[in-house]
Amino acid sequence: MLIYPEGVWYLIEKGKEPKVTVQNLARHLQNKIDRMSVSDTSKLLQEAKGVGFKFTQNPFALGMSAKEVVNLWENRIMDSKDKSFQDKYEKMVSESPKKCFSGYKKWMKESEKRLAAEAKAQKNLEKALQQSGLPSDFTEADEVFLKLPEKKKESIRKKHNEYEKIRKEISMENGFASAPLWESEPENLFSSDLNVLRAGKLVGSLPYLLIEHLGFDSETAWNLAAEQAGISCTDYPELMFFDRQSDRGFRTAVILDKNGIDFNTITERYTAFLASLCETGNDPAEKDNTEISDYISAHLRQKYGNMQTDRNILKKYMESNHKQCCHCGGGYGSKLDKGNIPQKIKLQYFSNRLKGGSGDPVRNACEICRQNFLIEKLFHETYENHYYLHLFADGGEYSSHAEPGIFLDALKNGIMALQSTDCRSFFIQHGKLVREYLEEKI
Asked: What is the pTM of this model?
């Protein structure tokens, strides 16, 4: 086995050939990564700003069941120190009501705007219905509606939804007027009971899973967190004024507690809900191994003499400027959160891969490097300083810089020359090879 910064070579005896396919290798590699990821499931969870816990990877794609997911939340919540909940309660009582009431009062002051918007939305809807020959109490099952062109149907649906939305807001306003939220004392908005606070953290954990791994938008996810626990957001519209990143889960838990719904009941209901998502196909358990397959296809060499240089990565590099993976320089990356980068691993800031300007640039990472970071994070606690350098696709900032093809060809020629040599490992003298290459070209 030969190990280099560029990768690993596995050698077999002459005359033998590994009988593997790229697809099988990709599947086996992904399965291995998944097994490593769940070898210590506690490391799959991260604290989410004191609101709840979030998964670093989709637990269902790793083969975990709904019950295992909820049990993992439960164990981490129960293991949390009592003081952390007490501190959270004190912070919410001192800070949250002011922010909540500020947004609430601002919303209430827009009463006249809502009335004007309702009149306008009603007028637009009535006009559309009249032009289409539909009554005000029409349904989409009506024969007249069914015969309308699709574009007309969509227009009526849009106007109808706008009208219903503003009517709902006015109804909420009337409810608040009869029971003003600001009359509540801050201490009554939240609870110092540890069981209620734990329930709040559980309520705050579900939305992170739904948003980050199951494709739900933020509003729907938080509404589901309340509804699946046992209360309707329609009955408690005040929740819209509580910050999702701070206190909404804990306010929801207080309401649940007043309705006789405790922590254990919430865990049971969340387990049933997540299990139903898996049954209805919302669980992406079948992982797409395309990225790994492409990676193996580009780098795997199985036969002697089949040492062609893959230049496709350079093409991708040029086509996705400022979107390349900040770690390997290849592929198309997506934003990488700082918390997912192992400590002391330094990402470069000197090339054209990252946009300049004030503040830290957005760092993107491809799927391969994301999984690499995850495994390193799970199994290595400390690092020496690591720096990863990249080839410049255009030859660098200065025309005197060598193009990356020179280095790739040098590596190829060096390995080709050693194929028939009996050795356990070797060291490529990059400087010498590049000089010889340039001399031949000149």
From this structure: 0.57
